[in-house]
UniProtKB/TrEMBL annotation:
The keyword Signal applies. PROSITE patterns: PROKAR_LIPOPROTEIN. Residues 1-23 form the signal peptide. This is Dual-action HEIGH metallo-peptidase. Keywords: Signal. It comes from Tenacibaculum skagerrakense. It holds the Pfam family Peptidase_M57. InterPro entries: MetalloPept_cat_dom_sf, Peptidase_M10/M27/M57. The keyword Signal applies. One of its GO terms (molecular function) is metallopeptidase activity.
Length: 276
């Protein structure tokens, strides 16, 4: 896996993706460039808008940027970045509240047995940490009270600009203290020679769950794991240093922008237990 430079959670180098013909079948939906106004708001929050697109995701219209999706209302709440801490593990301003709490999670059958098995692994990864958040698998497609707190859905998106987005989280925790409503997994990944194993997919799911409950990228300052040098900034969602985590580089954190970790390292565990 690492030999292929599979960047879990976000991107895969397209060098490895010259597969099949360029049939470029119809996309699920037309994707448009973001308006200058919206781009400015995202840039003010230090998101990398170079591949940002207006799109529909999990039933709502908004913008896909990095491995996140924000509705326009959420973008409006992204304020100017404040002072950016010069350290490594970060959380958003809003966290899941009401501890101890059980978070239900479901996965679309569109992701198949692989998706189902991977979610079980990801749930166990979190539950084994012993935090006050317990994750529980429930059936997909429930309505009302039976609707999972975090739904895992399928989307299909081709490689672009040398990268493929593996997963995409629907924002960060809400002001009310609930997790983001879910995340998507790009089934295009499954078609490639670097198609994930159960544990690799579970690693990406654990990363996206991390966003849903308030973790920003460990390397948000530099996105060094993606071979980039940009600053994601503190955003309106905040980028608050988590005490007890390292101040140096932490390339094996599962919350790196572009992997390659697929399991929690000790700093990830400490960060989780500090918050929850
Ligand atoms: Zn991410």
């Amino acid at each position: 896996m690492k030999k292929t430079k599979l960047f879990l959670s976000l991107f895969v180098l397209a060098t490895f993706l010259f597969i099949g013909c360029n049939s470029d079948e119809n996309q699920d939906q037309v994707q448009e460039e973001v308006s200058p106004d919206v781009a400015a708001k995202l840039q003010a929050a230090y998101f990398d808008t170079s591949s940002a697109k207006v799109t529909t995701f999990m039933g709502e219209e908004g913008v896909a940027v990095e491995d996140m999706f924000f509705t326009f209302a959420q973008i409006d709440e992204l304020g100017e970045g404040s002072n950016i801490p010069n350290t490594e593990h970060y959380r958003t301003t809003n966290l899941v509240t009401g501890l101890p709490r059980t978070i239900t999670v479901s996965v679309s059958p569109d992701l198949g047995t692989l998706g189902s098995n991977a979610l079980d692994v990801a749930i166990n990864m979190y539950n084994n940490l012993g935090s006050q958040l317990t994750f529980q698998r429930v059936a997909f497609g429930g309505k009302g009270r039976n609707k999972a707190n975090i739904e895992v859905t399928e989307f299909y998106e081709l490689e672009s600009g040398g990268f493929i987005t593996l997963g995409r989280a629907a924002g960060f925790p809400t002001r009310k203290g609930d997790p983001a409503k879910g995340f998507g997994i790009n089934s295009r990944w499954f078609e490639l020679s670097i198609a994930p194993t159960v544990n690799e997919l579970a690693g990406t799911m654990a990363h996206e769950i991390g966003h849903c409950i308030g973790f920003r990228h460990t390397d948000y300052q530099t996105r060094e794991s993606c071979g980039q040098n940009v600053n994601e900034g503190s955003a309106g969602v905040g980028a608050i240093y988590i005490p007890g985590t390292p101040t140096g580089s932490d390339p094996n954190s599962i919350m790196q922008s572009c992997g390659p970790a697929i399991t929690f390292n000790n700093n990830d565990k400490n960060a989780m237990l500090t918050l929850y």
